[in-house]
Design a protein that fits this description.
single chain, TIM Barrel
Length: 275
């Protein structure tokens, strides 16, 4: 299988401006780009993508950014938050249909009534029951999936790192349950998140992989210390061996805070490793 390595717009540490990031990537010969969160709102985002329409795009989670930023929560008990989160996903899917990336990946929800704090902390919020949260999350995914099918766009759900007990979709059994309900939804396998969750929750990464292997549509690669989601460079990290064993054609470099020299170094390393 021919594997393509994409570079997330979140990799470049010196800019939150989409136009500037695409200009830098294009000038350095990067052809595959994941449009992701962490960008400033701009009225001309669509024009920026059209200007670089020769690039290959996929879209991840909080893109395009909205004028009034918020923390998405597809499992919110507060329907105003949940519906706003669904609308963001639908807008991203519409972008996919318009610019032909044909793949949109998104985060699961959180077990709180409204949403988490700006750094994804619980901050004193009360947790709702898992089943209540899962019910709302499933309702959201059903609506997102229906919209994606109508637009001919593939979607994938990302595994999270279990930063706190509000986090969902961090365990193997959660994905087994989810994929039985939504077999049409792929999995965005985040190896950095898997490394943290497996240590915090005491399961073997290979058990997780066995459960989702046939559904993997995309892989995020970045490194960490096994405790915090640091989004470090994967070059020479211990996740590379696992990455090489996964049969997936869409690989995304998602290290953060890098300059262009480090982005290119990691990109070339991944391309050579996966060749």
């Amino acid at each position: 299988m021919m594997k393509r390595v994409f570079v997330s717009t979140s990799c470049l540490g010196c800019s939150r401006d989409l136009q500037e990031i695409l200009e830098c990537y294009d000038a350095c010969g990067i052809e595959n780009v994941e449009l992701s969160g962490g960008l400033d709102y701009a009225d001309d985002m669509e024009d920026s993508i059209k200007r670089y329409s020769h690039l290959n795009y996929i879209i991840h989670n909080y893109f395009p950014p909205v004028r009034a930023p918020f923390i998405m929560n597809l499992a919110a008990q507060d329907d105003s938050i949940r519906e706003k989160s669904i609308e963001l996903c639908k807008t991203a899917i519409d972008f996919c249909a318009q610019f032909k990336p044909r793949l949109y990946s998104f985060h699961p929800g959180f077990r709180v009534k409204e949403t988490l704090g700006s750094n994804f902390e619980i901050d004193g919020r009360m947790l709702v029951s898992y089943e209540d949260a899962f019910c709302k999350f499933a309702k959201s995914v059903e609506e997102i999936s229906k919209h994606a099918r109508s637009k001919g766009v593939n979607i994938a759900l990302e595994n999270l790192e279990h930063k706190n007990d509000a986090y969902m979709m961090t365990r193997p059994e959660e994905f087994l349950r989810f994929l039985k309900i939504f077999p049409e939804v792929g999995v965005l396998l985040d190896l950095g998140h898997l490394k943290i969750a497996s240590r915090k929750l005491n399961f073997k990464p290979m058990n997780f992989l066995r459960g989702v292997r046939e559904s993997i549509a995309e892989v995020h690669i970045h490194e960490n210390d096994g405790a915090k989601d640091l989004h470090l460079e994967p070059i020479n990290g211990d996740l590379i061996e696992m990455l090489a064993s996964i049969d997936c054609k869409v690989i995304v470099l998602e290290a953060r805070g890098l300059n262009m020299e480090r982005i290119l170094l990691n990109l070339r390393f991944l391309e050579e490793t996966l060749r």
